[in-house]
Amino acid sequence: MAAGELVQQAEPEEAEFGVGVYPTGRRSVAKMYEPAAPSSPFTTSQLARLDEALTLSSRETGIDFSVYLGELGSDTREAAEKLHASIGEGAGNAVLIAVSPGERVVEVVTGSEAFQRLPDRAAKLAVMSMVASFKEGDLVGGLVSGLRMLSDQAGHAPR
User: Fold this and answer.
1) Most exposed residue of 39, 55, 64, 72, measured as fewest CB within 10 angstroms of its CB?
2) pTM of this prediction?
3) Nearest Cα to 75, choosing from 47, 103, 111, 45?
4) Distance between CA 123 and CA 129 in Å, rounded?
5) Do 147 and 97 contact (CB within 8 A), yes or no?
């Protein structure tokens, strides 16, 4: 380059949307933040259905119903009973429906007070109904159906 020669500078390139180019050539890129969607086997409307069924069953019968969905391990009954016991002081008047789709197991655990109104026969009928829906791929429908059957069998809360 000789003295007095002009050096032609490159035209600054046109930055695409969301990109800023500094005079030094450094680029700053803005990206949309998209939080990770919560992983759940249920859609929002399915969760609403399940929540409504749990609420109505508990309100109608006075029994606290709970649903657990997940792995139970090798001794499924023992795991379900531990989950039921973790309810605390109210476990005597509670019913837990524990479903492990991967293990193809459904366990219904009733507390000592709830058992007076929900004998094993009622629980077995509800499990049969749930399993029929589960085989069709309708997990929420099976749980809702089982909750309805159990609450119908238990009847209204004693006054």
Assistant:
1) 39
2) 0.73
3) 103
4) 10
5) yes
119 half-sphere exposure, CB direction, 13 A CA radius: 1
Residues contacting residue 89 through CB under 8 Å, at least 6 positions apart: none
User: How high is the pLDDT of residue 107?
Assistant: 95
Q: What is the percent of the chain where pLDDT is above 90? A: 65
Instruction: Copy the structure tokens of residue 2.
Output: 């000789």
β-partners of residue 108 are: 97
- Which of 117, 129, 128 has the alpha carbon at shortest distance from 153? 117
The answer to whether 62 touches 158, Cβ cutoff 8 Å, is: yes
Mean pLDDT of 64-84: 94
Bridge partners (DSSP) of residue 29 are 19
Distance CA 15, CA 19 (A): 6
